[in-house]
Amino acid sequence: MTDQPPPVRPVPPLRRWATDPLVPVLLLTAGTMLAAAYGHVLTWAVVGGLAGYTLSGSV
Amino acid sequence: MGLIAGGLLSGVVLGALSGLSAPLPASWRYAAIVAVALLAVLREAEVVTIPLPQNARQVPQDVLRHSPRRGALRFGFELGTGVRTYLSATAPYVLAVAVFLGGQHLQVAALAGVGFGAGRAATPLIRRASGAVEGWDADLRARLRIITVAGSAALAAAFGLLFLQQL
Lengths: 59, 167
Hints:
heterodimer, A: about 60 residues, about 55% helix
């Protein structure tokens, strides 16, 4: 008897789309532009989030 | 939590040091922030090569060995500070320059630091939420250039907008 690897369940397309690595960038960029256009203090938090997310490629 | 605490510490430290830039006129400081952000876009697009200082190390794996809970907190904290490990993107440098030169209240610098930590935390969260980490890693590798260029461009645009409001 051979050990078969467990079958990989396919990820639903909507979940795959919603968790694409580009999604946070798009959301944070939109949030940054909106907050900066109004000069809102939260611009700094969103900009910080965007800067943090760009480091996704490193640990 | 560790990531956010690390980001908060870095934000507060930079915010406390930002008083050193106060003697410079606000318009100069904001122009410098926008210029640095534009340079970051060029660097990410590999139009210019600018070596930047970084702590060329990873958090050692053995921090997780003794106590997984405390180890995870320390692991996140070190990553969250942004000064204890490799930095593979330019946007964090732009953020640091902006907090230093921005002349904001300490709370605003803290807010930027918390945002930075939360942004770093988003990566493992969304990776796990994807349900297929290997596929997600491959997608990230394919999109990393877009993420870093778009991130720097968004920072340049945001600081440009804030600069215009200061005039």
